[in-house]
């Protein structure tokens, strides 16, 4: 039986529509949500992501402050920019597009972003709060994955969730979010022995490794929900996920496509965090 498609594009559009209304209301009270978008160098993928983020900002009424800087920028100059953005009252969220060029210290840059403006949720404050189950910004990609499950009434409670991939910005926070929703969570990665056996136990299988077709159809439990967070470009220039979609959809009950799944959700959740950040600056109570 073919799986039901989890339409991330549609879920993201619904979230944006809700945000658009909230932003209009904020603006009527004199609050203009603003997002600083920092892009260093000429990485084509980064340029594309940044332009999508700026486009969505415009679509829903967030003011984006673009900072396109040359590859030659020094660490000191970049830190100075972050400090200026931290104290700029018109900027509620700061996004520094990763990866940074090799000569820059990515960790120092990301840690310099004020926790109140860390809408990516990559800093130690946001990640620490997630671990402590305290309110804070949740990293956009894992948050988007959870929202897709929620939109299709897939409740992690009582389910066995397997997260393949242990990155700080996707795999680890996603495992914590699934735990928060009472799933029994297994974390796996590229060095997990018998990965197939582990994946076959997953009622919810989330994959964020960055390797095309790493998860084959025979690794999917019948009736599972599959969330593919990989974005890979094939030699033919096609964008694909980490899961062999055509084979997996014959066994799964639900599956996210790539493109059109995790990608648009990541941007929607970035907008969501920016609106939260703007509300918090004026003391509006928010749920995180
Ligand atoms: N590079 C790839 N994805 C992301 C993201 O979600 N945020 C940032 N800052 N950089 C990225």
Notes on the structure:
This protein is an alpha/beta fold and 288 residues long. The protein folds into 2 domains: 30-114, Leucine Dehydrogenase, chain A, domain 1 (Rossmann fold, 3-Layer(aba) Sandwich), CATH 3.40.50; 140-263, Rossmann fold (3-Layer(aba) Sandwich), CATH 3.40.50.720. The chain is 41% helix and 15% strand. The chain is built from 10 helices and 11 strands. Strands 1-11-8-7-5-6 form a 6-stranded parallel β-sheet. Strands 3-2-4 form a 3-stranded parallel β-sheet, with helices on both faces. Helix 1 (8-28) runs parallel beside helix 10, helix 6 (140-151) crosses helix 7 and helix 6 (140-151) crosses helix 10 (262-281). It is globular. The model has no long low-confidence stretch (mean pLDDT 97). It binds guanine. The site of guanine has 9 residues, from strand 4 and helix 6.
Question: Concise description?
Answer:
The chain is an alpha/beta fold and 288 residues long. It has helices at residues 8-28, 44-60, 75-86, 106-112, 124-132, 140-151, 171-180, 195-199, 245-248, 262-281, and strands at residues 4-5, 34-40, 63-69, 93-96, 160-164, 184-188, 204-207, 225-228, 232-233, 239-240, 254-255.
Keywords:
single chain; 288 residues; alpha/beta; Rossmann fold; 2 domains; 6-stranded parallel β-sheet; 3-stranded parallel β-sheet; binds guanine
């Amino acid at each position: 039986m073919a799986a039901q498609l989890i339409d991330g594009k549609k879920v993201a559009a619904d979230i944006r529509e809700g945000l658009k209304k909230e932003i209009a209301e904020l603006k009527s009270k004199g609050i203009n949500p603003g997002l600083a978008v920092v892009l260093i160098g000429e990485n084509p993928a980064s340029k594309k992501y940044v332009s999508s983020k700026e486009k969505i900002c415009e679509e829903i009424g967030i003011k984006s402050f673009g900072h396109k800087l040359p590859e030659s920028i020094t660490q000191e100059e970049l830190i100075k920019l972050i400090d200026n953005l931290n104290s700029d009252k018109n900027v509620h969220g700061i996004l520094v597009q990763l990866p940074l060029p090799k000569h820059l210290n990515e960790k120092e840059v990301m840690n310099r972003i004020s926790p109140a403006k860390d809408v990516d949720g990559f800093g130690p404050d946001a990640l620490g709060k997630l671990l402590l189950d305290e309110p804070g910004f949740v990293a956009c990609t894992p948050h988007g994955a959870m929202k897709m499950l929620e939109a299709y009434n897939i409740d992690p409670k009582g389910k066995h969730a397997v997260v393949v991939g242990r990155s700080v910005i996707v795999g680890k926070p996603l495992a914590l979010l699934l735990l928060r929703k009472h799933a029994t969570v297994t974390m796996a990665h590229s060095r997990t022995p018998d990965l197939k056996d582990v994946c076959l136990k997953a009622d919810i299988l989330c994959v964020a490794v960055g390797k095309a077709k790493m998860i084959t159809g025979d690794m999917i439990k019948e009736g599972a929900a599959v969330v593919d967070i990989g974005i890979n470009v094939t030699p033919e220039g096609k964008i694909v996920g980490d899961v062999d979609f055509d084979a997996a959809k014959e066994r799964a009950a639900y599956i996210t496509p790539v493109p059109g799944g995790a990608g648009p959700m990541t941007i929607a959740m970035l907008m969501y965090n920016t609106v939260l950040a703007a509300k918090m600056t004026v003391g509006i109570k928010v749920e995180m």
